[in-house]
Amino acid sequence: MAEPLPICYLNGAWLPLREARISPLDRGFLFADGVYEVIPVYDGRPFRFAAHFDRLTRSLDGIRMRDPHERADWHAIVAELLQRNDATNAALYLQVTRGAEYGRNHAPFPDVPPTIFAFCSPLPDPSAATLERGIAAVTAIDTRWSRCDIKSVALLANVLLRDDATPSGAQETILLRDGLMMEGSSSTVHAVIDGVLVTPPNSERILPGTTRSVVEELADRVDLPRVTRPVTEAELRNAAEVWVASSGRPILPVTQLDGRAVGDGKPGPAWRKIWQAFLVYRNECAKLPW
Ligand code: PDD
Predict the structure, then answer these.
(1) CB 174 within 8 Å of CB 184
(2) Which residues have C-beta atoms less than 6 Å from ligand 1?
(3) What's the topology of domain 7-122?
(4) What's the pLDDT tens digit per position in 166-196?
């Protein structure tokens, strides 16, 4: 993993990331009482800025916090963070917690200033080998809470589920609940079934992914029929193609699932089309204001 870029934003200050400090009484630290976003940046330009900040506001609303900034202020913070780090292709991480009280109280005190933190890391494109071979994934029963639509920093279940993939060298864990495919430990999962791109509906059990809507728009561009409907575990295991999509590793084909080949074990034709369309779309976006 490449090192993060050196300058971070913390509560209005610009600091070397190595020197940034928060209180141990921060509710984010004590209770995981906060939310976050990961925003991909290509050519120095945030990708789907509005969608990420709409979701941030929605997540804050879900934990009964007001968005601490107007959109224009967020825009200025993001622009300055990218500029101070001379960032080109990066993953911008942004976190807002309910702040630090003097003590530990389950019930939050009103009017405590939030803690706002942002930094970025280099975001290389997937390697040629990954694009050629795809990735392996495993499945696991979804042990997360019932508000997965909130992008909460309480990620312990996601972390442990992702770790289930590690012993076999797989790179994602696809989560199953009540016999249905939900999503990955940190990605949206799409399946190609009978020539149709199938994506499970957003719900309180699934994070509304921003890359998901990109995939849907690109499917329309390349005339790939698509539908939003539940996907059963059996359908997942028999799908011709399975993809994982997220801001961190845009759209990757899963070619092995629980040690068995997905389709013919190679990235499928639908994924190849979507990947090309994604590269074109990303270039188009590079010229647009954000
Ligand atoms: N995760 N579902 C989960 C559980 C996720 O954590 C993510 C993203 C997604 C995809 O959302 P998006 O397309 O907006 O990135 C779906 C980020 C990248 C993370 O936690 O690092």
Answers:
(1) yes
(2) 38, 183, 186-188, 207, 209-212, 245-248
(3) D-amino Acid Aminotransferase; Chain A, domain 1 (3.30.470)
(4) 999 999 999 999 999 999 999 999 999 999 9
